[in-house]
Amino acid sequence: MSLTTWTYLLVGLSFALYVGVALWARAGSTKEFYVAGSGVHPILNGMATAADWMSAASFLSMAGLISFIGFDGSQYLMGWTGGYVLLALLLAPYLRKFGKFTVPDFIGERYYSQTARIVAVICALFVSFTYVVGQMKGVGVAFSRFLNVDFGTGVIIGVLIVFFYAVLGGMKGITYTQVAQFCVLITAFTIPAIFISIQMVNQPIPQLGMGGTVNDGTLLLDKLNLISQDLGFDEYTKPNKPRIDLFCVTAALMLGTAGLPHVIVRFFTVPKVRDARKSAGYALLFIAILYTTAPAVAIFARTNLLQTIPGKEYAQVPAWFKSWEKTGLLSFEDLNQDGKIQYYNDANAQFVEEVAKPQNWAGNELHIDRDIIVLANPEIAKLPSWVIALVVAGGLAAALSTAAGLLLVISSSISHDLLKKWLRPNISEKEELKYARIAIAVSVLIAGYAGYNPPDYVAAIVAFAFGLAASSFFPVIVLGIFDKRMNTSGAVSGMVVGLTFTLSYIIYFKFGGGTPDQYWFQISPEGIGTLGMLLNLLVSLTVSRLGKEPPIEVQKMVDFIRIPKGSSQAHEH
To answer: How far is CA 253 from CA 76, 78, 256, 469, 479, in A?
Structure first.
């Protein structure tokens, strides 16, 4: 069968599965809509959490970024993996014991304040909208290649699909759909990696394959370093970013993970606190499969790309090149009119002077959107059509699963935290469910528009969301659990300062004309959430110490959350 037939078949089957599951598990109550009735098995919840967690940023963009920036891409691996461990061990069990399934609900109750709840809702909306924009770009990339249409059309089609099953199923439908999506995306990510690892270094385990030797006896990484340097790029394995920025981006991703509303709510879909711990462990295992494979995929893809395209006659490019050109995410401009594709680092002044100019190269002629690398990788490696089609299905599964989870957070923030808990406390369950679905519908349209005009690559957009979560939620959640002295004024002022500072920095440097030489302490917008988190922490602790202690019942509630049932300390309280 042709690639187009295989793609339609596998994507069609996967979507039929998702829609069937969404209809079977359709939410009929607000508890089922928000937390799937709290009856999901820990292993299934672990799969759903992993699918929720491994978004388009993990599946499509992370390997693409590592492929292009090499060593410095390790910040995404360390930050996101470490962040999940932090969330699972430090926060999830306590929040589950507290019993509030949205972050604004926890903050509103813990800090005994509607003001705190509303500020938390605003923070949750900023974080979730930023994150979902990245997913919409990922959906657009996958659909544009799958249907051979331009990127914008791909985004529009993705919006319609997400709208359908997120509005229909609620958390119950999304949870079981995400179990299916996890199975699809992890299969789609690992099978091509195994194929290419065998093809390049004769090693079926990709994690070992990236350290293997190619046919001429050279280490794969040494070969990639050499090819990169021949084109004026730095050694692939050499760090280039300032160490402070590498640290801050990693920390922002870690701490932001611990404040992500759509992941935290996952720990309420299981029956007991013990099950929340178990599902966190299973999710970490499932996540590790993809995260340990991503660097190998990046190395294989970069090596294949650099060996396949630079210096090649445009008239002789393979079919995959022309297919990606149609999407607008890959382009060739023949600057010196010689009919050959010149791809090199034209920002390297020494290389341009010594190599490019003598050969009449007029500049880098190939422009590649980093987010296409994972999808293009099996095509570049000339893998069977069914493998290429499987990767497209996996990319769609990754983007759609997280988009649905985020949209649910947005809807619950509006219908539950704003309407039910503040503006209209007497609203019926049926009306609350109706407004939740309306909120999803409006949100998906706004997110689709932003995804149509994305500010950056998927992983970079998602990094902004993590920075906003780190600077707004992380301190108030951690202090809310572990510091009895933390009060309303401290929490509200900390969230406002942290979010405002981080958002302003990102907007200035991404949209306001700021340049990298103006970065504070050499910290990029992707890493500024770490500084915002420290400001939040400082302001929260200072203001809370200057104000009144929280009411005694709130202090007892903090002890109840933190101290294990049956311990001697629990009896004292």
So the answer is: 7, 8, 5, 9, 19
